[in-house]
Design goal:
By secondary structure, the protein is of the alpha+beta class. The protein has one helix spanning 44-61, and strands at residues 14-21, 26-33, 68-73. The model has no long low-confidence stretch (mean pLDDT 86).
């Protein structure tokens, strides 16, 4: 029986991040397009993308967006 080949990280459409907010709350597996990451900036663009996602969520929910304390890739090896 043939083994299924696992996709390489560069082939994935999204990268998942865990986010910790200044108030101590956490959100797991926030999706960021992998095409926006890498290069000289590494994962730094993920913060701006997640902040924009938070602004849209806050606008729709009527609740203020929390300030991000840290962002870390989810499921890191």
């Amino acid at each position: 029986m043939a083994k299924a080949r696992r996709k390489a990280d560069s082939d994935r459409e999204f990268v998942l991040f865990n986010v910790v907010y200044e108030d101590g709350s956490q959100k797991s597996n926030r999706r960021v397009p992998s095409s926006e990451l890498g290069g000289l900036d590494g994962d730094e663009p993920a913060r701006a993308i997640i902040e924009e996602q938070d602004r849209r969520i806050a606008e729709l929910s009527g609740r203020p967006a929390g300030r991000i304390k840290s962002i870390v890739r989810a499921g890191g090896r």
